[in-house]
Amino acid sequence: MNIFSRFKDIINSNINAMLDKAEDPEKMLRLMIQEMEDTLIELKTSCASSIAEGTKIENDMHNAEEIASRWEKRAILALEKAQEDLAREALAEKIAAEKEAKRLRNLLEENRNTIKESRREIEELEEKLSETKARFSVLKEKEERARNEKRAREQMHHDTEARFREMEEKIGRMNGWNDISSSSSYEKFRKMEKDDEIEKELRKLKKKAGK
């Protein structure tokens, strides 16, 4: 595909539609930007070449015009010297030089139109490249915000879990203390009940023994 075909494809491309279909929009935009930059370099190189070519054509045209002017002066000189045949030869050279100058003039006009079109294409592509880069920056910012929000949610979740664990441990310690306290009280009451039962049995036994 030549440079002008690529340029038309890029300019006519619908970036929004392409982004909607892309699995990885960031990667697609990066590739598009690279393609645009490469095409822009080629367009500028081609334009610079056309400018250089135009300069050469213009110089050649001026040279042909000067040659035509010299042959006209020679034809006049030949007529002044009564050398009509020589004047005809000079005029033939003058006509050939004028034709060459006209051909180069037309070529120069085409060259200038080509340069004008190339500059228009460069400007149009630079504008689309700028828009694509701006879209890429917006996409990167959105992804960065999404990553930051995700990190914040994960940190919040981590902090919440840590607080819950801390509360569970505290409640566990409290329950453990209650269990210990309950166990201690239970043993005390059990001992008191046992001692009381023993005292009752002792009194019964004394009574039975007549004491």
Provide a concise account of the structure shown.
The chain has 211 residues and is an all-alpha fold.
Report on the architecture of this protein.
This protein is an all-alpha fold. It is 94% helix and 0% strand. The longest helix has 125 residues, at 84-208. The mean pLDDT is 82.
Could you list some keywords that capture this structure?
0% strand, PspA/IM30 family protein, coiled coil
| Major sheet details | none
Taking pLDDT < 50 over at least 5 consecutive residues as the criterion, the unreliable ranges are none
Span from first to last CA?
128 Å
Radius of gyration: 51 Å
Question: What is the H/E order?
Answer: HHHH
Helix/strand structural class: mainly alpha
What spatial form do the alpha-carbon principal axes imply?
rod-shaped
Share in β-strands: under 5%
Estimate the helix proportion, in percent: over 70%
Query: How many alpha or pi helices?
Result: 4
Mean pLDDT: 82
Number of strands: 0
Topology (SSEs and partners):
Layout: H1 3-12, H2 15-21, H3 25-80, H4 84-208
